[in-house]
Specification:
single chain; 344 residues; alpha+beta; 3 domains; eleven-stranded mixed sheet; two-stranded antiparallel sheet; globular
């Protein structure tokens, strides 16, 4: 049954009111209609599907013009949302700092400084558009859910997680070079888009930011950008990456060795047993400080579910060398998300 926009949920009304001053009266009405329609729509979330949820809603053409002719409002809405999140989280960060100081055990020497870590998580996702023909930015992208290339959009997305609260950042549309040439826009790779996120993101004051990326975004540029911002960074690694291994027999004292080959030669004594943050299962972790070819100097973290399992099932991460415990940093992705992810 269609619902009048006057019958808004109290929490939804409070959320929409945050952006009231950024929108004109008609824009605010369309903004509320889209929010309410997305929450109520149980079928396909098309424009007609959204309008069917609202009693005495506007015309389909009016809603279409709002979404197509007011793209500049998205940046203003995102800035308001991020500013509100930072303002809301600042007292919680201060309370967490006081809690750590209060619970710190008494001992000789200088006390440890309290650390509140926020996680900046980046990844991309493909949205299939089977009937899309004239939509902007359409291309053929790989879909992990269907394990094949599909026609649709690819969005580079980011999420900020702090003290259990999540704040999504504005998604960025990735266009392939032929699509950029056809639409007359400059090309930006996924690496470029993620680097822009790292360089422009403003965390909550008084926190340490830890960037978490999957294997697709293991790039030297991201490590340099994180270091320049004073951020920590952990990214997934593929088993075919090369790392520098000490070898006294080599002329230079070291050799390049494939990560999978390095893991195969490790013994059981080279691992430590730790608890996986989600599920409390035991895993085996090996950490080595080295340099990864075409990446940077880092700590390579190798995680295995069982030492009897094949080496091909091992998972790998590269993390910045400063701050934190290596095993905890490698598992930070799951701890931040709170559920199983492609990296976990």
């Amino acid at each position: 049954m269609p619902v009048p926009i006057l019958c808004l949920d109290e929490y939804l009304r409070q959320f929409a009111q945050r952006f009231r001053h950024e929108l004109s009266k008609p824009q605010y009405q369309y903004f509320v209609i889209v929010l309410l329609g997305l929450m109520l729509c149980e079928g396909r979330r098309t424009l007609q599907g959204l309008l069917r949820q609202i009693a005495d809603g506007p015309s389909l053409a009016g809603l279409s013009r709002f979404l197509s002719q007011a793209p500049g409002l998205a940046a203003d809405v995102v800035e308001v949302w991020l500013a509100h999140f930072r303002e809301e989280m600042q007292p919680e960060v201060a309370a967490e700092v006081q809690r750590q100081r209060r619970e710190q055990p008494k001992r000789q020497g200088r006390p440890k400084l309290p650390v509140v870590t926020g996680y900046l998580i980046g990844d991309d996702s493909t949205i299939e558009k089977r009937k899309g023909k004239k939509m902007e930015g359409l291309g053929r992208h790989h879909s992990t859910t269907q394990d094949k290339r599909v026609r649709g959009h690819n969005l580079v997305e980011s999420l900020y997680v702090l003290l259990g609260r999540r704040c999504p950042l504005a998604p960025q549309l990735y266009r392939q070079p032929p699509v950029c040439a056809a639409e007359g826009v400059p090309f930006a790779s996924k690496i470029d888009l993620m680097e822009t996120v790292i360089r422009t993101f403003e965390p909550v004051a008084g926190t340490v930011t830890h960037v978490l990326l999957d294997t697709w975004y293991s790039a030297k540029r991201h490590g340099l950008a994180a270091r320049e911002r004073g951020f920590l960074i952990t990214s997934g690694l593929k088993s075919n990456r090369w790392l520098r291994v000490e070898d006294p027999a080599a002329p230079q004292g070291w050799i390049w060795q494939r990560l999978s080959d390095y893991t195969a030669q490790l013994s059981a004594n080279d691992y430590i047993q730790v608890k996986w943050p989600k599920g409390e299962e035991d895993v085996y972790v090996h950490v080595v400080t080295t340099r990864v070819r075409k990446l940077y100097s880092c700590q390579v973290v190798i995680v295995r579910q069982s030492l009897d399992a094949p080496v091909s099932q091992a998972r790998y991460w590269a993390r910045s060398r400063s701050g934190g415990v290596a095993s905890d940093a490698a598992l930070a992705y799951c701890r931040a998300l709170g559920h199983r992810s492609p990296l976990c």
